[in-house]
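Recall that a protein's primary structure is simply its ordered list of amino acids. Everything else, from secondary elements to tertiary packing, is in principle encoded there. The following example makes that idea concrete.
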Amino acid sequence: MPDLLLELRSEEIPARMQRKAAGDLKKAVTDALVAAGLTYEGAREYWTPRRLTLDLRGLDARSKDIREDRKGPRTDAPEKAIEGFLRGAGLTSIDQAHKHSDGKKGEYYVAHIVKPGRPTEEIVAEILPAIIREFPWPKSMRWGAASREPGSLRWVRPLQSILCVFGPEVGESVVVDFEVSGIRSGDRTVGHRFHAPAEIKVRRFEDYAEKLERAHVVLDAERRKDIIRTDADNLAFAQGLEVVADEGLLEEVAGLVEWPVVLMGEFDEAFLAIPPEMVQLTIRTNQKCFVTRRRRRDGLANRFLLVSNIEAADGGAEIARGNGKVVRARLSDALYFWQTDQKPMPDFAGLEASADAFGLDLAKPLDQRMAKLDALGVTFHAKLGTQGARVKRIADLAAIIAPLVGADAALARRAALLAKADLTTEAVGEFPELQGLMGRKYAQLQGEDAAVQAAIEDHYKPQGPGDRVPTEPVAIAVALADKLDTLLGFWAIDEKPTGSKDPYALRRAALGVIRIILDNELRPQLGRLITSGDLLAFFHDRLKVQLRDQGARHDLVDAVLAGGTGEADKDDLLDIARRVAELGRLLETENGRNLLAASRRAANILAAEEKKGTRVAPSVDASLFVEDEEQALSSVIDRAEADLGAALGAENYAAATAALAQLRAPADAFFEKVLVNAEDEAVRANRLALLTRIRTATLQLADFSRIAS
């Protein structure tokens, strides 16, 4: 079966857009082909800084004929109805229709419509111009003389050529001919713009990829990444170094080059006095280079690795020298920021009022920075006051939370007071990504307690699913205080998330609180801090999301919240998570599934009878038992209740679910042998009381009626 090769070549495509754009191209083309009645065996997209490519294999040579029987009006219908039928069916005369009869409505017309299939080249030529014109670039531009014309093509960068060929695996292929904004498709492309700018004629993907490789273009982005990774590792190893891994930078750099050539540069060792994170970020941000470190030694080395897009005649010496010059200039700036932040501020004498209000020591640079943050009066939110006011709230809240998580209250307050101080430093002003980390560095320099240092760095964490969670008690207290203050504040001013809108990242803050609690197995009694039931419900919704991500069923959270946990316990997120986990394990067993069915049956019978006003005995009277199954079920309920009470008291939820599992067999036997709605009113009320005991027992763990089938 034939294959299709498509290449859209343009000027430089931003690296961050390439992967998605290639995927968008594949989806748009394959969706359109399928909609046109074509099938294919496989499709793969490729991308470089200058081209998007689609390799589509096993495509039908033409679309299939479409046959449709379109039913029309009765043969004696009015003339206008018949004319409308003819127009809709594409017929020119009623003689082209056929007469059918169904025996009820009499004779009616039917149009037997045959739409012949079309050659694939024709379909491709029809769909691609619209796909190219409507391509979903995040940002696009017009260019050249045509840009003045209405409806001119927009592309991420000027589109230079379109290659589109179709044909068998062997033999000649044909150009799929179409035109977009003056650019006509063909069978030509060009290689590397410096090493091989001449035109290349191609027939199919294999010779296309092979000829591009000879023309200094590595088409596959994953292969470019492997080349960069391997060459960088080898070059570093030869110098007794190792590359500091950075997958995000590797992805970006692979999108900047078509022919990756890894080179090594260097900078003055004096710059290694700067914190390594600051050195790495400076070099990464400004030059897209990788940093290195000595093998089996702490700290960075004064060598970096850059990726060039050309093979220079001098082996890259001049390129490495030029990059080294720029790196040294940027590191000079970083060193200035680092040193300036350690010195007393030139105007700190005017910060006494803020220092007194917060209990700060103006002899210390980081304290000066916090006093400046307050004195500047920077607004956090119009309805929630300044950053200084927020810091005070966080410090008060951290001192309250500290004893609940085993932390020292004084250290928690101190850490909270300094946690935002680095926002006014030169380093964080240049590199906002270093918030918290630079605060820790400066706190260490002025001799703060190790727990305070850790809390300053970690109080923002976790900021996403892959981020680590604070584990040191003081850091936990400050991190919880930071996130809870955000949630409590925005809830107080009624600025809550709605639908997909969450401008203040409140969902992320709540998930951060939940992860800190669950990962550290904490029970901080959130109810003492959260008075809004609406906010607590928001935590429960986020807990469902978190537990679902860990493999739990969201309906089990509803069941636990509606059942065993009393109102006073619904703020114990760790307890809820443990109950959900054990309930999930129980329901994965046959005993659990059958117990669920039995408890539902009992609940349904009770609900129906209670709705009718049927009397239910206040307690079970063994003297009214008629069947052996009644006695057996009652005895097992007695034992299960005792075991369940002991297990719940010890918070042993595995034992609690095992206690409930005892009910399965006698409950099954009861429902199979015993008629609940007995004619004798007293026997019926007693049997309903027995079912009430089943419902009450299971409710101590969860409301089984909330569990999906």
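Residues 317-341 form the longest helix (25 residues). Residues 221-322 form one domain.
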